[in-house]
Each structure stands twice: as C-alpha cells, then as structure tokens.
Specification:
Low-confidence stretches: 25-31
Structural class: alpha/beta
CATH topology: Glutaredoxin
Mean pLDDT: 88
CATH class: Alpha Beta
Radius of gyration: 21 Å
Helix content: 40-55%
Shape: globular
Order of helices and strands: HEEEHEHEHEEH
Strand content: 15-25%
Number of domains: 1
Number of helices: 5
CATH architecture: 3-Layer(aba) Sandwich
CATH superfamily: Glutaredoxin
Distance between the termini: 75 Å
Length: 182
C-alpha cells in the first residue's frame, strides 16, 4: 500500500516545489538581477577611447561626482530601445554619462552612434570584455550608478525604462548629488 502512494507523494512534493519557485520568481523580476558589487568600489579601469582622437578613458577621471556607466553595443537590440532615455541622461551636466562599448567592432559602434546619436561624455572601448567581466556584466544593456566616491550604488539590467528613470534613477541621482554637495 505504501509503495503505491510513494509516486503520488513524490509528485505532490514536486508540485509544491514548482509553485514555490514560481512564487519566488514573481517577487524578483527576471530583468533585475542582483549584483554583489552594490555598495562596493567600482572596479577601476583605463581603456582606449572609442571615438577618433579620444584619449584613454579612465574611471578615476569621474571621481568626485556621481556618474553612470552604460554598457552598450551596436548589435544590442535592447540598447536601441533604451537609447532615447540614455540621450536624455546625456544632456545632464551634473553627472557624467560614460559609455562602455562592449564586445563590439569599433566601426560598427561608430556607425551606430552616427545613426542614433551620441549622448556620452566619454566612451571606453572594451572589445575583449576585460572591464565588463570585472563589473559582472551579463549582457547589454546594463547601467551602473556610481557615487562620487566611486562606489556602485545601483545596477540596472536590461533596457532602462521611463519607470526606472522616475522611480529609481532620478531620485537616486538627486540623493547622490546632494551627498556630493553638487
């Protein structure tokens, strides 16, 4: 008798685990992956600039004020989706918007910028994934909010949305600017 109930009990156990997994996944949207770097110093880097004649881009140049590191590529469909919001952020003068062109061909990236617009204050070229690896980049686009002391305060995975801007990014930037005394 018990041997006949074992498959049913195993099945019911799996159903319970399945529903628990679904419930947990609803609490954390799949496009908002946690980062172990939140609250830690942003990995420092010095990379070649992407644009013609652009000097090397170094993370140390942005210390002293909040800045955004936006990971993008010409082959990235989500980067095209978020680009109008990134352009709006690029118009701000109180923060630096730094592009990290990731796993991309320089000519393709420059053509993409010519077509869609170049909102970045500086663009570092990372074709070999040297820097993105240290930031724990899963895929483009990703955007890191870094405070004046060089600490990562937030990470957006996937295309930025108007909701991200209004609910999280703009209030956080206002707080960071106040903390920095800007």
């Amino acid at each position: 008798m018990i041997a006949r109930l074992l498959p049913l009990a195993a099945f019911l156990g799996l159903v319970v685990l399945l529903f628990a997994g679904i419930r947990l996944s609803e609490e954390r949207p799949p496009d908002r992956l946690p980062s172990v770097l939140i609250g830690k110093p942003a990995p420092s880097f010095t990379l070649p600039g992407l644009r013609e004649g652009e000097a090397e881009v170094s993370s140390s140049a942005f210390l002293g004020r909040p800045w955004l590191l936006n990971v993008w590529a010409s082959w990235c469909a989500g980067c095209r989706v978020e680009h109008p919001l990134v352009e709006r952020l690029g118009q701000r003068r109180d923060i630096a918007l730094v592009g990290l062109n990731w796993k991309d061909e320089r000519a393709d990236a420059l053509r993409w910028l010519a077509q869609f617009g170049d909102p970045y204050h500086a663009i570092a070229a990372d074709p070999d994934n040297r820097v993105a690896l240290h930031y724990g980049v899963y895929g483009a686009p990703e955007t890191f909010v870094i405070d004046a002391a060089g600490v990562i305060r937030h990470k957006f995975v996937g295309p930025l949305t108007e909701q991200d801007l209004q609910r999280t990014l703009l209030p956080l930037l206002a707080q960071l600017l106040a903390e920095a005394g800007s």
